[in-house]
Structure formats: structure tokens, C-alpha cells
Amino acid sequence: MTTIQQLVGRWRLVESKGFEEYMKELGVGMALRKMGAMAKPDCVITSDGKNLTVKTESTLKTTQFSCNLGEKFEETTADGRKTQTVCNFVNGALVQHQEWDGKESTITRRLEGGKLVVECVMNNVTCTRIYEKVE
After folding, report:
1. How far apart are CA 86 and CA 106, in angstroms?
2. Is the pTM for the entire model greater than 0.85?
3. Among 5, 13, 83, 93, which is least packed by CB within 10 angstroms?
């Protein structure tokens, strides 16, 4: 079973399926969707045991959030949404659940074959993004 420490590091996006559709479902405007679809971000995950930081870096924008597992916090997403978010580590996966304006989305990060697989789900729209470890 994966531990949270195995998710720590710098990960580079190598494959993405359904991201533009996911952004559309979130309510992201067309211009930002086009730019977001072209970005090839790095995801940098750090943890000191309980506190977790997830930083997403790209030429378009850099966003970051820090949290304690199981504690709700306010997150400002890359597209400007203010969400009530909670992260938990469940069955070897980091599960990030966002709620805003009566809507919700779940982002799950897990290891598969040494790669970081990020699955973003809202309603019936699923996006899968695959990252390879850089360092």
C-alpha cells in the first residue's frame, strides 16, 4: 500500500485526458480552458507527516495549498473558485474533496507503476492526468 511519503516529490505532467471537459464542467471560461489545456505543469508534493502542501507550477500560473489531513480549509483554485476543501489519505490515495456554491469535485492522487495518476471528477465528467517523477 502506498504511503503519503511516496507521493512526496516533483512530478511532471506527461499525459492528460479529458482536462478541457473537466474544466468546462467546473465552469471555467473558454480562454482559460484553452490555456489550461496547453499548460504542462509540475506538481510538487511535500509533507512533514500531518501537514501536506501541494503546489502546481506552470508557465501559466502557480497555485499552492497546504492543509492538515482531515481538516476542512478554504482553497482558492487555479481558476479562482473559493472552495471548502478537505484532504484525506484513503486506501493509499490522497483524496481532495472540494465544495463550492452547492457544487462538488473530487481530485484523487495515487501511484500506479511509479507514476502519479491524478483523477479529477465532477458530476459525470472524469479527467485523468499522469505525471512522472522528476526528482
Report:
1. 10
2. yes
3. 5
